[in-house]
Amino acid sequence: MSLGVVASPEGDQVHEAPATSSTPSRHWFVIAVAAIVMFAGAGGAAYWIFTQGESHTTPPDSVGNGYTFGQAYAEVNSSLSNLSGGPWSPTSIVGIAPQQPVAPLPNYGASLNVTMRNCGQVPGVTIWNASGIPVFTGTLNSGAAPFWSILFKNSSNLHAYATFLAGVVHVDPPSPTVENCVRAAGIGSNNTLDPKVDTPGVAQSAYTVAGSAFSEKHSPLVQYYVLGNAQVLEPDASPLGWVVNYFRCDQTGVTGLQNYTAVGFSDASNQTFTDNGWLTCTLPNYHLAFAPGSTNSSDSVSYVSLPFQVTASGVLKDNTTLYDGWGLQSWMFDMQALNSSSTALPAAAATCQSWVPDLTDCEGNTSGWFAVLLSQNGDWLDSFPSTPGGSNWAIPNVVVSSHDQLVVVCPSSWSLGADTLVVGGNPSSLDIGGSAAL
How far is CA 394 from CA 350, 369, 373, in A? Predict the structure, then answer.
């Protein structure tokens, strides 16, 4: 049994605890002699079915706003040709084609919050800052995705990270930022890949084998194309060939137990592997455990900074509190600011509804309060509410993790001593809570 990791309230120290059915774990496809293997997955059962020599084809359909791996890889390789230290070989590839906004749960090592802090410094749209991944407008049998994420390494075991987003290549050369992220995320590998097979063929085969039937029952979904070491935690991965995952978790509006299926391919043996089961997408409850806040005020606006940890109870076998909760996204909760009489204070639309370089760019709104979600590194992630008095975030699909912070922005004329910020599930059926004195 693998070990789950619990981060302490005091910081980034971690304590190991036995994993439970709610603790996520990676699945790896392996070549085996057995025809059928049954195993326990994260929160449920799954079945691997091995077939040999079968050939399924489905007529290609629309790539929509996506690109096949071959198209993306050609552009990325062209950019890498100008990067010193080569040759560069891929060790991990993932393509993401979501049917609605998605926030992948990234692979993490010691703890999610440590991984998010280190990898959050990698600029641009990434696996760890994925709210900018477009909704895919193509079809599941096309082999296309609007976002590709590729990790490379050279003979000196230095890493370069590249993304292909809607036709645009971004390359991060070797740096302490990239290396710290790779270590924290646990995605380094001694293996390198030679991806000679493009994705349209495997997408058509996977769709025929399982994807068509699954999507009829379980859409909307997110389709992951994975080759090599896993960058995302739950979808199946293999260094032996592509794995096409049809996945319900990670999308806005999706919580709890969900079905999934995956079809893997071995380039060497021409075998096909089908994995069906269910996963726990989210923890049964969340609590934002706020640390004491601090206030900075100017002539017109006050900023109340409230660091927090994402905690959950009743998850681990020994019933201890989990301080490194995973699976929480911004769409799942809303907030109210209440005065001493428990009357709601007016909420104004946030003045920064998209990324800003500094918190001071979120100017105060004289008609009420709003909140800004900052990463552990102080970077803008999201803001609430998106409309006056509303219950929605500006960006619904943002991963919320321990050691992020909420900053309440309000007129400096307000007397905050007896006011309270209260967190609730959105919808209210979600067991999410927390409160902090302002």
Answer: 8, 15, 11
Report the distance separating Cα 153 and Cα 186, nearest Å.
Answer: 14
pLDDT of residue 60: 56
For position 342, what pLDDT does the model report?
A: 93
Q: What is the pTM of this model?
A: 0.87
Note the pLDDT of residue 61. 81
Nearest to 2 by CA among 26, 32, 30, 28: 26
Neighbours of 176 (CB within 10 A): 9
With CA atoms as reference, report the closest residue to 152 among 124, 178, 118.
178
Report the alpha-carbon distance of residue 192 to residue 172 in Å, rounded. Answer: 18
- Kindly give the parts of the chain with pLDDT less than 50: 1-59
Q: What is the pLDDT of residue 110?
A: 87
Residue with tokens 């005091």: 10
DSSP state of 118: H
Among 225, 374, 222, residue whose Cα is nearest residue 293:
374
Q: Detail the DSSP E strand segments found in 268-419.
A: 271-280, 286-290, 294-297, 301-311, 333-338, 370-374, 380-384, 405-411
**CA distances from residue 287 to 11, 100, 277, 284, 353 in whole angstroms, order as listed:** 17, 26, 28, 11, 25
Q: Are 258 and 249 in contact (CB under 8 A)?
A: yes
